[in-house]
Write a structure and sequence with these properties.
The chain is 72% helix and 6% strand. With 445 residues, it is mostly helical. It has one domain. Strand 1 and strand 2 form a beta hairpin. Helix 3 packs parallel to helix 8 and helix 7 packs across helix 12.
């Protein structure tokens, strides 16, 4: 067995499972703040009831996210010792800041939100929701900045012994790749949260339960979902794609299944990449659109994979290609679904549209799939580099940890995550069954 494969597989498995939880908490932190703000208006107590419900959901999600994130920290030492020795003095800054500042800010004020409303009063409880939002989104930035350094290493230089050290802290922290990736990631988290909120609202509406809460959940979920779904595509997704074209053109070529270079490059809608034959089978494309989106003009030359040595190609082009198209395709569907729902809502007919309500209720898993596909695109596109253009993935693995050990612990993680997943589903299901509870007594439960 290849140890490098299992090192990569284990980190991918744990990271994918873990990210199911923070993508909801980050987006939900913003929506809770919106609900708490609406609750401060005269006659807005029903929004406070809605916020209390989602604070409980947030708390459960946050707790499981913390537990599932811990193994990833240890894997930097157990699985990726070469990478940690080479770049630890750089990425340790943002990882440490995430734990020291953002995590404690988020977790401390979450406790106030869950248990302290009756003690601190409505005004301070609103400030706690703002602090929760700030901590959650600050945490997201530090993690994204860490990954952005691996995608586009700036602000560091080689030190004695061939390892990296910080040369310009602010250039590292405010990496232009990080700024765009962060905007795209956080807006995508709002899409996830919006779909989840709308799904619960649609569920209550279809069952004829918690009518006021159902309307509020649908209103917040659909409107925020529409705005966020558009922003994921334009401008954040568009700007990040241009950045990939500039700094990782081989990744763009693999994402589009483009094997040959040339002008008037098209966006591929459908097709199957054949890496062995170096062609895209059965392509359906919009001619010239990739040249425009990537470089601004129809006649711009877009490099294909033939412009780069095969050793520098992403090592799983097929998975990268399909992940990118799944992400982009689902993003388009999200815009259409939320636009249709918003139109029906504006006409006062959403509650009388069972087909649309069923669609909203059943659609909540798809933002999770789109977000997972998006991270696959980012990380597979970076291959075969751990730090792009500087450190190869194979050089970053732990040389003394053999494949059998990694496989054994991966099986252990799978069993643990199965138990955690079942517990999570049970707890969330119980909260949804209870539904929103009116009044401050909800804060004591």
């Amino acid at each position: 067995m290849d140890p490098l494969f299992w090192h990569r597989f284990q980190f991918a498995f744990t990271a994918t499972f873990h990210y199911l939880f923070p993508q909801l908490t980050m987006g939900l932190a913003l929506l809770i703040l919106v609900m708490k703000t609406l609750g401060r208006r005269p006659g807005g107590e029903h929004w406070n009831d809605a916020a209390r419900f989602w604070i409980r959901i947030f708390g459960i999600n946050f707790a499981v996210g913390v537990v599932t994130g811990i193994p990833m920290e240890f894997q930097f030492g157990t699985n990726w010792a070469g990478f940690s020795a080479f770049a630890g003095a750089v990425i340790g800054n943002t990882l440490g800041m995430e734990g020291l500042f953002a995590f404690f800010l988020e977790s401390s004020f979450l406790a106030v939100l869950v248990w302290g409303e009756a003690k601190v009063g409505p005004r301070l409880h609103w400030w706690a929701s703002l602090a929760l939002f700030a901590g959650s989104w600050l945490s997201g930035y530090f993690i994204v900045a860490t990954d952005a350094f691996m995608q586009h290493p700036v602000g560091a230089q080689a030190a004695a012994g061939g390892v990296l050290q910080i040369a310009d802290f602010w250039a590292f922290l405010l990496n232009p790749w990080a700024l765009l990736q962060y905007a795209h990631t956080m807006v995508a988290s709002v899409v996830t949260a919006s779909f989840v909120v709308a799904a619960v609202g649609a569920y209550y509406q279809l069952r004829g339960q918690h009518a006021a809460a159902a309307r509020d959940f649908l209103r917040v979920g659909v409107l925020s979902g529409l705005v966020a779904s558009v922003l994921v595509a334009f401008p954040t997704g568009d700007r990040q794609a241009k950045q990939v074209a500039r700094y990782q053109p081989v990744s763009l070529a693999a994402m589009e299944g483009r094997f040959t270079s040339g002008p008037y490059a098209g966006i591929t809608l459908i097709g199957q990449p054949d890496v062995t034959a170096r062609r895209l089978d059965n392509p359906v494309e919009v001619r010239g659109l990739l040249s425009v989106l990537a470089y601004g003009t129809w006649h711009s030359n877009v490099p294909g994979l033939d412009a780069f040595p095969p050793a520098d190609w992403p090592d799983n082009i097929e998975l990268l290609y399909y992940a990118f198209h799944i992400m982009a395709g689902l993003g388009t569907i999200f815009i259409l679904l939320m636009a249709a729902s918003a139109l029906r809502m504006a006409r006062g007919r959403l509650d009388r549209s069972p087909a649309l309500l069923w669609t909203l209720m059943l659609a909540f898993p798809f933002p999770y799939i789109a977000n997972t596909a998006g991270w696959l695109v980012a990380e597979l596109g970076r291959q075969p580099w751990l730090v792009y253009g500087i450190l190869r993935t194979g050089a970053g693995a732990s040389p003394n940890v053999h494949a059998g050990t990694v496989l054994f612990t991966t099986i252990g993680f799978a069993g643990l995550y199965l138990v955690l997943g079942l517990l999570f589903v049970f707890l969330i299901g119980r909260e949804i069954a209870h539904g929103p509870r009116a009044g401050l007594e909800a804060a004591h439960v």
